[in-house]
Every structure is written in C-alpha cells, then in structure tokens.
Amino acid sequence: MKYIIGLIALVAALLVGAYGLLFTQPGNDILKPVIEKKVAAQVPLPTKLETFVLRPDRFEVVLQVGKDTRIEAKGSMDLMAQRVDATYDVDIEELANLKKLIGADLHGPFRTHGTVKGDKKAMAIDGESDLAGSATGYHLKLRDFEPDGLKAKVAHLHIDKLLHMVGQPLYAEGLVDVDADIPGLDIEHLDGTVVTKITKGLVHSAPVKRDFNLSIPSRLTFHGDIDTRLKETKAISKVDFVTSIATLATKALVYDIKKGELATDYRLRVPNLDRLYFVTNQHMKGDINVTGDVEAGKKGFTATAHSDTLGGAVDAKVANNDVKVRIKNIQTVALTDMLLYPHIFDSRANMELDYDTLTKKGELHARLLDGQILPNKMSFMLQQLANFDITREVYELTTLDTKIDDKLLVSDLHMKSKLTEIDAKQAKVDLDKQTIDATIDVKIRKTFIPVRLSGKLTDPDIKIDSKGLIKEKAKQELEKHLPDNVKNSPAGGLLKNFF
C-alpha cells in the first residue's frame, strides 16, 4: 500500500512541477527563452518573443519578426477540450523584408486582425485586412484544423497596389470588389460562388510600351463583371469585360483547378478596327464581331474564330504556333475599304492562309471569281495608250499565290478574260514599309504591255512600257496603207515581220 501511496505522491509532485513550469509566471519566464530559441531556429529572420503568458485558461503571445513585423495573439482556452476563443493581430510594414520567411517576392504593407473560436471539430476564423488597399472581411471555417468553408468580401482592392505587392510593374490601375461564398473548399468537391466586379480600370501605356513594345492608346480604360460558380474541381465563369477598344464576353469559361486546363467560348466585338493599330500595325476602318472557342492545358493551346464579315465569312484555327485561316465569298472591295487601300478589283474571293507564328512564314492561296478591274491610275493610262477600257473585262477566275516571310509578301498573279490576260511573277509587298515592287505583264488581244508598280502601297508609281503598243500601232498603220499586192508579196511579209 505504501508503494501505491508513494507512486501517487510522485505523480502529484510531477503534475505540480509541470503546472508550476507551464502555467505560472516563473515557469513562463523559464520557458520563454527556450521557445524564443525554438522559433528563431525555424524563422530565418531576427525574432524576439516579447510577451509569453500561459495559464490553464488563457494565453497571450507577442512576437516581433525583424524590424517591422509584429504578431499578437491572446484569449481563453481549454486544453482538455482543445477549445480556443482568442483574438489575433498581424502588422507587417513591408512584406519584402519577409522574403526569406514566406519564400515569395512580395512588397508593401499588410495588416489583418480578427478572432479564432471553436475546437478541433469546428473552428471559425473571422477577420479583416487591408489587402492591396482594400477593406476585406473574411470568415473561414476549419474542420480538424483543415479549411472547410470560406466567406469573404473584398471592397475596393487597388489593382496598382496588388501589382506592386506581387512585384510586377504598374501596368494598370483600378478597383476590384469580390463577394465569395464557398461552403466547400475540398479541391475534389468544390462548391460555392465568387462574384467579381472591376471598375475604374486604366492601362498605363508607358510600362506596357517598355516591356511589350506595344504603343497602346493613352486612355485605354476597362471594367468588367465575372460571375463564377465552383463545382467539383472546376471554376465556371460568365465574363463580361469591356474596354475602350473592344468588348469580350463568355457564357462559360471553365477552368479545371486540379488539371490546370481551361476551356471557354468567347464573343469579341471591336467597334473601331483602327484602334487595334498598336497590335496590327495596319490602319483599318469598320467594325467586327468574332465568336469562337479556346482550350489551353498541358497538351498546348488551340483557338477558333468565326466572323460573318466583308459580305462573306472568315474562319480561323490556331493550334499552338500553327495558324489556318479560311475565307469564303468575301467582297474584295469591302476588304480594301477595311484596309484603307484604293479600290482596284471587284470580285468575290475565297482564300486559304497557312502560317507559322514561330518562323513567321506561311502561304496564301486566293481564288477570285467574276472579277472586274475598277477605274484606277493604271486602267486610265492603259486606256490612253491602248485605246482599250480594261475595266469592261470580266475575269471569271483570278488566282493569287503568295509566300509570306514575316512582313514580306511575294506573289504570283494570273488573270484571264475574253480579250486580256494579266500575269505577275515574284511581285513583292513589304507590309512593314508599306511598299510594292512588281512588274505586271498585261496582254490586250495580241499586244504585251509591261506595267511597273513601285513605291507606296496605297499610291504606287506606275510606269507602262509602250514599246509594244507603238509597234502594234505601226503595224496596223502599215497594213492599212499598203496596197493589197504589196501585202501579199515577200516584201510585205518582210515588213510585217520587222514590226
């Protein structure tokens, strides 16, 4: 019996000693440097445990990390029930100073405070923060200390401050509001909604020009709405995004968070094509509506585009760096109007373009039906020299085959009507310099007339070699004035051959 009493006394003494060590101020004073040393071993920054109070029913901790990060927590607790009811306050003056600790290159201040209530089975964290200049409130539920559900409201998050926070140039400014209600945070069984609203957006042209060599308009504004539904492993969003250049909308942008795959439809409207000059380097007029689909993931990137435009239809498909464009039954006059080129030819056109965005090389094959040359400088000059109105001719089939090497186009052209035939070999168009260099062989009846085009693409210099015309006119005059007996004589044949 005395041994049992002795054992009980020993256990009681150990408990009293542990209590004295854990839950009294003298004991806390002993534990404080030990805990501070343990924390310092885990944190690659100077740390100081300024306050450490641990009692059976309450605690208080104040930890200083570096010069400008302070973490405070205090409240009541029940160790046996693993229950806590506490407040916390995190004050970080400069995130960049915590790079060694958080492993990310972040910048700017961050502050948050709130409460923690509950036990291991169900715990709730309610707090507020000033993330990127916002007024953010959040309610996080934990089950077995794992995130189980989240509600959050972000009011007026500043895009420029967020970019600064993540170490990016200040490409834009604007405000973002978010309302998230996510009762299911399990990545395999997501459930909830996230509503995002973007207002007062403005792109900063200087850093975009510096980093991407894009000369965007000086007042490129934007706003948008994104309604997202979380289901299983996917985030499914309806997007309406409006800029001062174009509008973009999707019915269902689906992002599989687990697989890292994206698939979406889209509708793009550009009311003024000339505002895309910073991308296309081509002045244009008119508007366009485009619809299509996009898929992106580990296997690569694909996108389709369709537009009923220019009196016909344009379809395109992009698969990684491979671009295919198919154009059906468009009006060439409408195309030249859009490109701000002079009217030269009126027809219906079908085209096939294959292009590699990496090598910047490709081929264009065009077939133009029932075409007519429209009045222009060249047709006027031909009429003056040859007394022939080429604009009256109908070209049932015109073929154009072009090799593309970046911005240099090298083309072969063939046109044939009842009385004329037109050919060009290795005609060069430089889209970068907006110049043309081409020799066109025009055959009117039996007379060949070389035409040289050079200089500015929209208003080239035209030179017509009239030797063939002069020779043909001389031959006609000779035949007109030679007597019949001379025409049919050897001398007449010699004269004809001379011309």
Concise overview:
The protein has helices at residues 2-22, 25-42, 99-102, 159-165, 205-212, 277-280, 332-338, 377-386, 467-481, 484-487, 490-498; strands spanning 47-54, 58-65, 69-78, 83-92, 110-118, 123-129, 135-143, 146-158, 172-184, 190-203, 221-232, 234-243, 247-256, 261-270, 288-297, 300-309, 312-319, 322-331, 345-356, 361-373, 395-405, 408-416, 420-430, 435-444, 447-456, 461-464. It is an alpha+beta fold.
Structure write-up:
By secondary structure, the chain is α+β, with helices and mostly antiparallel strands. 21% of the residues lie in helices and 52% in strands. The chain is built from 11 helices and 26 strands. It has a 26-stranded antiparallel β-sheet. The relative contact order is 0.04.
What's the count of strands?
A: 26
Taking the sheet with the most strands, its summary is: 26 strands, antiparallel
Mean pLDDT: 86
Structural class: alpha+beta
User: Portion of residues in helices?
Assistant: 10-25%
Which term fits the overall shape? elongated
Ranges where pLDDT stays below 50 over 5 or more residues in a row are 1-19, 489-499
Distance separating the two termini? 144 Å
State the main characteristics.
disordered C terminus, 11 helices, disordered N terminus, 52% strand, 499 residues, alpha+beta
